Every structure is written in C-alpha cells, then in structure tokens.
C-alpha cells in the first residue's frame, strides 16, 4: 500500500494478523521516532489473531402495528431505541457503561425521529458516557443484522471489546419509500425491473418462478406461524426479551405495553383464502401471508470472548460466520439462498449441520423458496420454532436482532443443537445470513422439537 507523506511523513510497516496482512502507519516527526508510538511499535511485533465474538444479550420492544391506531403512534422512534439500550444495561449490571466501545443502530428511513446519526443520539439519550461513540447504518430489512456483523468484525480484529448493535423502524411515522428519489436511470436504462421497487411485486415474481409454491402452501405456512407464536407466548418463550414500553394516547391515557400487537391467534386458512391480493389481480400474496407494517426497536450486546470472561458476562451464542449476497432485485426474496450457501462455505459446514433456522418471514413465499432449495419440509421443527414475522411483525431494520434473540433462547432450551442460522431477504435484491454456535451444545443431549 502506498501512503502520501503528509506533514509528519509516514512509514508503512506490515503487521501479520492471523492470515491477513494489514498496514500499520507509524508517524516520523522530522526524522525522529515519536515516543507516543513506542507501545504501538511494540504491538506491531506481536502476532495478533482474529478473536471470537459472542452474543451476550438481546432485547426488543413489543412490536406495534404502524399507523395512528398503533400502540406507538405517539411515541418517538429514538425513544424506542433508548428503552432497549437502557434495558441491556439494567440486565447486565456487571458491565461498566464506559467499557462500551461503539453503538451501531440501523434504520431504513433515516430521517426525522430515526435520523440524526441515531446510534450516537440514542447512546446519549440513554445516558451512556459521552466517550461512547455511535453511528447509524442502513441495509434496509437487514439493518440490525448488519449492525451486528459490522461491529462484530471490529471486535474480531481488536478495534472493539464490547458493542451495542440494533435497529429501529417506525413505519407509522416513516412509511417505507416515502421521500425516496430513485435515480431515473434505474428505469430508463432498465438497470432493474420496475417490480424491484415494490416488495409485494417481488414476492409475486417468486411465485411465478417457483410454481410449486402455491397460495395454499403460503397460507398454510402463515397459519402455522401464527400458531407457533401463540404457543411460544403460552410457554413464556417470548416475554423474557421484551422491554415494557409506556405509551400515551390522547383521551385514553397511559398504557404499559408488554406484548406484541400484530399477532392474530386463531387465524385459519379459510380466513386467509378470503383476503384480497393487492399486488396483482388473482395474485397469491396477501396481508395474511406476508409480514405487516410495524413499529419497533431491538438492541444486542456483543463482546469478545475475552471481555465477556473478564467481566463475567453471559455467553448465549458464538459467531461462526456471516455472508451477504446480491440477487436480481425483482426476486429479492431468494437472497437468503446464496447468502446461506456462502456463509456455510466460509464456516466449512453443510446445511445438514444446521440444527435451528430463524428465517425472517417478510413473505411466506420467500421462506418456502429457501426451504425448497435446501430440501427442508414446510413444517420442519427446526424452522422458526416460535413463529416469525408474519405473526410477530417486521419493523424493517430492527428485525435482525429479533431473530438472534429467538435463536439464543432456543439454544438455551435445546443443547442438542450445535449450529443455528439467522437469515433474511433484503430489498433491492440481497440476502444476509449469520451462522451461530450454541455454547450449551452437548452431543449426548436428546433434541427438542418445541
């Protein structure tokens, strides 16, 4: 790598980091080595290895329905994030606040109450020390997932020890796509199919591409998602990770929200068969077999394994690998397939090694296309044991950590599982997958199906 000289001059030295070579710059002032860099020079002589990254804890707000009738109609998006950050700190009192090295918060629509570099503003509003930096991140639906992988990479190379990563979306205040100004070249030069800019149309395109995925199958899958979430609530498998949020509605007073608003328990396939298909006449995608428009926030605590051990922090999962992949934007729902194949390849694993799947249910057809590709049955007990976004909701950039929370809790319940994945499709034609290892794994433990 070639460096320009600058005011002090730059010497470039190579530091071996695991299997990677990186540049470390050592300033030289008027030909004399500056004493402040003595320690850095010492560290350059050390062989540094990529560190293990662990998932310590994760929380979320109850998810609400977007719109003026939703529970968060009069609640700010940044206040939802603040609730999550404060709850993480309350649940982990052994963690000094000044040990947090970064706060990364995602939002798809970065304006208004979820703009202004929300990672930094939420950190300040939550009462973290001013020395704790923060930033905002955007990868549409995979925003929180990307906040996790980005900061996890920093932990891996030693830039951070402990981070908070999460996401927020207030679709009631900021409907998806409002204020966006797509470049006209997308259409005039046919860079993408016009359907790519409407997520419902991309789901209909998946039905066209995979005719074996019928509306009857997607409706049945959606009903199963509702039933699994209801069963998980009945077993108290959801509530432990929810942060109570007090909200106020004019004329109704204050309410403390402790459960998700979107679920519709008792939904039947007959109910779903009667719904309209808004994206295409005689189509297959409906409000019943797709995630709704929702508000909510999530946050996770990640650390190096060394920092977790030093502070006595719990270890719920260990990060194994992650991958992102691009696909044709007009069939964005297939994105988790190449992303998962890449993540498995990086980890040296096969799909048969994965004991639990947390797949974001943006659309039922998208989940079923993934399952069909890998030869997994629609009702496989490894898949979305607690239900998914069709039932619980999908506040865009926040959902990645919701998947991680649920996988971590399933790891704690089922010690027969060694590896699990969290995976999502992403608007504009992408997919994201993270592979996690269960620290509780015991090969002699009998598996659980619920």
Automatic annotation (TrEMBL):
Q: Name one GO biological process term.
A: fatty acid beta-oxidation
- PROSITE patterns registered for this protein in UniProt: THIOLASE_2
Please give the Gene3D superfamilies that the UniProt record associates with this protein.
Answer: 3.40.47.10
Gene Ontology MF: a single term = acetyl-CoA C-acyltransferase activity
Which residues are responsible for catalysis? 141, 394, 425
Look up the record and report any one GO term of the cellular component aspect: cytoplasm
Keyword annotations: Acyltransferase, Transferase
Report the residue ranges that make up the Thiolase N-terminal domain in this protein: 53-305
Family annotation (NCBIfam families): AcCoA-C-Actrans (TIGR01930)
Regarding protein family, the annotation reads: Belongs to the thiolase-like superfamily. Thiolase family.
Q: What is this protein called?
A: Acetyl-CoA acyltransferase
Q: Which organism is it from?
A: Arthrobacter alpinus
- Upper classification of the organism: Bacteria, Bacillati, Actinomycetota, Actinomycetes, Micrococcales
């Amino acid at each position: 790598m070639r460096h320009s000289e600058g005011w002090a001059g730059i010497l470039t030295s190579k530091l071996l980091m695991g299997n990677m070579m990186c540049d470390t710059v050592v300033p030289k002032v008027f030909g004399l080595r500056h004493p402040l860099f003595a320690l850095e020079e010492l560290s350059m002589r050390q062989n540094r290895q990529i560190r293990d990254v662990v998932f310590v804890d994760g929380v979320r707000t109850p998810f609400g329905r977007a719109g003026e009738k939703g529970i968060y109609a009069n609640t700010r998006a940044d206040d939802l994030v603040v609730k999550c950050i404060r709850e993480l700190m309350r649940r982990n009192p052994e963690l000094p606040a000044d040990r947090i090295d970064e706060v990364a918060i995602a939002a798809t629509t970065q304006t208004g109450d979820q703009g202004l570099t929300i990672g930094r503003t939420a950190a300040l509003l939550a009462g973290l020390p001013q020395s704790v930096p923060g930033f905002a991140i955007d990868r549409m639906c995979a925003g929180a997932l990307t906040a996790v992988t980005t900061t996890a990479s920093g932990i891996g190379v030693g830039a951070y020890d402990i981070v908070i990563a999460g996401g927020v979306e207030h679709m009631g205040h900021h409907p998806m796509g409002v204020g966006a100004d797509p470049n006209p070249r997308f259409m005039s030069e046919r860079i993408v199919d016009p359907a790519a800019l409407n997520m419902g149309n991309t789901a209909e395109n998946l039905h066209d591409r995979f005719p074996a995925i019928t509306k009857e199958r997607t409706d049945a899958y959606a009903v199963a998602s509702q039933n699994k979430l209801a069963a998980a609530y009945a077993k108290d498998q959801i509530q432990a990770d929810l942060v109570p949020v007090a909200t106020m509605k004019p004329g109704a007073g204050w309410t403390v929200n402790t459960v998700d608003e979107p679920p519709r328990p008792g939904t039947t396939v007959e109910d779903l068969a009667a719904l309209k298909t808004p994206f295409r006449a005689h189509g297959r995608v409906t409000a019943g077999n797709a995630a709704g428009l929702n508000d909510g926030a999530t946050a996770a605590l990640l650390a190096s394994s060394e920092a977790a051990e030093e502070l006595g922090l719990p270890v719920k999962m260990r990060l194994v690998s992650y991958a992102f992949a691009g696909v044709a934007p007009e069939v964005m729902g297939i994105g988790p397939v190449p992303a998962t194949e890449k993540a498995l390849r990086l980890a040296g694993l096969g799909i048969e090694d994965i004991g639990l799947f947390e797949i974001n249910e943006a659309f039922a057809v998208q989940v079923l296309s993934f399952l069909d590709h890998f030869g997994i049955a629609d009702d496989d007990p490894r898949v979305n044991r607690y239900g998914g976004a069709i039932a619980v909701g999908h506040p865009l950039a926040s959902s990645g950590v919701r998947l991680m929370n649920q996988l971590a809790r399933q790891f704690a319940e089922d010690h027969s599982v060694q590896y699990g994945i969290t995976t999502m499709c992403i608007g504009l034609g992408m997919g994201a997958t993270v592979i996690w290892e269960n620290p509780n794994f015991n090969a002699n433990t009998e598996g659980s199906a619920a």
